[in-house]
Amino acid sequence: MHRRDFIKWTTLMGAATTLPGWSRLALAADRPVLQVPPILKANFDGSFTLNLQRGQSQFLPGVNTETWGVNGSLLGPALRIQRGEPVKVTINNHLDVASTVHWHGLEIPGDIDGGPQGVIAPGASRTVQFQLDQPASTCWFHPHPHQTSGYQVAMGLAGLVLIEDTEGNKLQLPSRWGVDDIPLIFQDKRLNDAGQIDYKMDVMTAAIGWFGDHMLTNGAVYPQHGVSRGWVRLRLLNGCNARSLNIATSDGRPLYVIASDGGFLAEPVKVTELPMLMGERFEVLVECQGNKPFDIVTLPVKQMGMTLAPFDQPLPMLRIQTTLTMGAESIPDTLINMPELVSADGLPTRWLQLSMDPQLDQQGMTALMERYGHGAMAGMSMDHGDAGKSHDMASMPGMSHDAHGDMAGMDMQKSAGKFDFMSGNKINGKAYDMNAPAFDVKQGQHEKWTISGEGDMMLHPFHIHGTQFRILSENGQPVAAHRAGWKDIVRVEGARSEVLVRFNHLADKRQAYMAHCHLLEHEDTGMMLGFTVSA
Ligand SMILES: [Cu+2]
User: Fold this and answer.
1) 231 lies in a domain?
2) What pTM, to 2 d.p., does this model score?
3) What residues sit around ligand 1, an ion, with C-beta below 5 angstroms?
4) If I label 492, which of 14, 263, 323, 428 is the partner at 20 to 30 A Cα–Cα?
């Protein structure tokens, strides 16, 4: 093999080949190897280049699936960024559709935040420059184009951003990329009979979200990975469009949560189950001793549409095989000094009421039951504000027998008259309007925002651009210890969540910040607002 070919081959294989030979020998032959996203290398001038492009992936044996990726066929590289260092990223859009790159979790000005207004036309490029002043954390980037974020993420566009700082580096946590510091991007996908990504925006997905029947970890179904003996750090991202996860180990060994969306916690928090909303990140440490392999699994969740097989029982997503080399033998007792919460007394407040148009709610759930049966309802009734009561399909008002045959997809919309499900999800009674920011926030000013899902039982992971916030209360409950640090997503599910936000950068009307549900089909159908930040 020529050296050039070898380099190409090793690059394609990513970090998997940087593992010592013995570590690969420990793995089973019949299971895919975990693909570790490569750390993006800087150009000669220190800048980075991201190419949005088409490609093919193999999710199923022998089947080529058309996918989109960043600098590759699927997903993208990880950008490692030092706090305080200037960063320049050029994004080239080689797709035949317009896209954007949103820097999820990064505190950067609105004009480079990559929301729906930061469009990059097909064939066009965009260069963004920024300097981060926020704690070490695992963030990510993904497309955020108007009404098609769900589609473009489903096709495969997403990548990680690793922010590093001196405080984090002092912790001496496992940090050998792919060896004992392992990124895991979980995404479900629905494939059609030809093995192609079967994305549809219709009344059902607008209400419930697009959910898959295959679970992928870094783009492979139930891959395996050899890790060093001792403590291993997993950087988890729930990259699903609409599916919440509940992470655990197959043998019940605990996970020690060390970081949430926007940075390290004050101290590790031991859990045996780790619910993860769409868009959320957690870093966990897990002790890998003994020769027995174990799995990272997702446990069944109670969320409409997400209860169907294979998610109706613990689903393995990664097999971990411990090898003979020693890694970290202990974990720190404490991590960072988490700043005290500022008092919320007297702060400006905002109220964000999430709602779904009753027509969309009813038609979406009817379509869900039609396609997948009662098992998909997660125990909820049709009027899901009233749990426990179940309705027979035949007794549904306006559901004639004839209408049932038309239930799939866009036909439903026509049969329902003028109702437009693309604006069926709302905040404060309005679907997203790109030309009308909802309010203005003063730069550097703390505010208390209350996001309410009262009157609606659906799960809404609510995300705010341009800030890392602190959760004061979550869905009417005190905040859990591992969710009390820096966050950019909060759970809203039938009750109120209160967050303490502050925006350090500016965002004007032309490039407003977004606040939205991170169930991507809710976002795409209106559950989003723009807001500005002024000096
Ligand atoms: Cu939502």
Assistant:
1) yes
2) 0.90
3) 460, 517, 519, 522
4) 263
